[in-house]
User: Fold this.
Amino acid sequence: MNTTTKTNADDIDQLNSFLRGEMSAVETYDQAIEKFRDEPGLAETLRTCRSSHDRRVSALKSEVQRLGGAPAEGSGAWGAFAKLVEGGAKIFGKGAAIDALEQGEDHGRDDYKDDLEKLSPAIREFVQRQLQPEQTRTHDAVSRLKKTMSA
Assistant:
């Protein structure tokens, strides 16, 4: 296997890992938005975050395809975990739902940061320019929302 093929395969695997996390985030936001339908302001913040994650899903799928790979089709284990956490949050209330979202945002932030060095320089730049700034925005939005709710 030549270096380019190996790098592409490694990049595709890592991008698909990010993609599964982003799909999981979209699924989790879908569940949380339903819980906040009676609070339009909070629900709008959640919809904005969900849209950001959805755009990242599209960007990641496109990048995987551009590299010649097949995009992940489901959220995998992270999606199952997110459903379990969010399901528990539904039982325990809105604060628990926001806690679950914040944990997911923490995980996403850490994944992008921790796995950057695994990527080729061009793909690393894609992640740093397109994905990480959005991840920071959604992470900060949920953290603000949590502080607002506990105030």
